[in-house]
Amino acid sequence: ITTDYSMSYITSKETVIKGQIKITKVDSETNLPIPQGEATLVGAKYGVYDSKNNLVDTIIIGEDSTATTKLLPYGKYTIRELENSTGYYLNTEVYKETITEKITYPITVKEDVIKNRFEFYKFYGNLDNGTGIIYAEPNAIFEIINNKNEVVATIKTDKNGYATISLPYGNYQVKQKSGLDDYKL
What we know:
mainly beta
């Protein structure tokens, strides 16, 4: 009896499944990748962390309001905003994604623009007569003009000479368009 103890080996190449995560930033009020006012969605920085909380990639939102990670191996990941873009609040939400296929996994991130509320009180009076009495001016109309010289809103005072508006991050001018006859605007 002869025994052949030679063994044959089989070599197998295994390829790790890798995928990518693509973040698309949108304004939370409009659900569009278009910023409000003078704010921008571009430039926000995100950290991508593996299941052991190791930073494995850093991505920055580009001109198209998106950013895509490098190829990431099979596994679970979390994504956090590290630096906000100009005019938007830092998003503290943690996004989770699991890479199981060789595809790009989309994540839409909704951002809140910084806004301020402005209150206007319009008064009129004749200070030349020395009385110093002023009165609330109703129905005065004002235009709100952005840095591109575009009218973005029109407001009108109520019976108490009061008007309010909330405006997104940016610089604005207020220009009176109409008021009481015989009074300087």
